[in-house]
Design brief:
Elements: H1 5-28, H2 36-54, H3 58-75, E1 84-88, H4 94-100, E2 108-113, H5 116-128, E3 135-139, E4 152-157, H6 167-177, E5 178-189, H7 204-213, E6 217-223, E7 228-234
Parallel strand pairs: 1-2, 1-4, 2-3, 4-5
Antiparallel strand pairs: 5-7, 6-7
Helix pairs in contact: 2-5, 3-4
Amino acid sequence: MSPSPALLATLGAILALLGFGAWWLLHVTEGAYVGPRFVVWLYDLSAARYDRIKDLRESEEAIDLGVPLAELLLADGMAGPDARVLDVATGTGRLPIALLSMPMFDGKVVGVDLSARMLELARAKLVVAEMADRVTLLHHPATPLPFDGRSFHAVCLLEALEFLPDSDACLAELYRVLVPGGHLLITQRIDRQARLMPGKAESREAFIRRLEKHGFVDMVRRPWTTLYDQVWACRPNER
């Protein structure tokens, strides 16, 4: 006996719903609603393909990330050999490589990530680029960070805030470890799929207000990719 049209329609609807759920869970939210262990597992699983998935190109990364960050640090006298930059959720090392390729920056970078496989790839890339002696990579969560307050002249968090279990706690940590007058480079997801991340993504205005609540000042938004804006800010100087 053949299944009835109503049963086939119901099965089709269930399969479509399951397909949408899998797409939402794995592609849109990257497991953020399941928990940090699942997110890390996904990144470990896709680490070998990550740079290709993101279509990362070191020349473009240098222009979009390395140049503006190095120029800001240089203008404030923070680009010398004692300069320290922290990159949280460093992944395969895109930010350290972009910054250290700038001749005007003579400091060092610390990269933090929970994906051991991503860190392995970052180490390999840094060795090839002959930058390994200027980068320290740590297998550690974004909160709490294992550093004293006021330890870094710049802190960065790229394409990760929306996937962290407690984004407010992370912002508080980024502020804590930043020196007064230091710079924050962070990204905000702004594509249409961000609307499918309730409690994780927010409007541009709400995000700026949240940074202000955590004490950051001088926010500047710069369009970056179809998925993310860059947002630059500072920890105010203390008098």
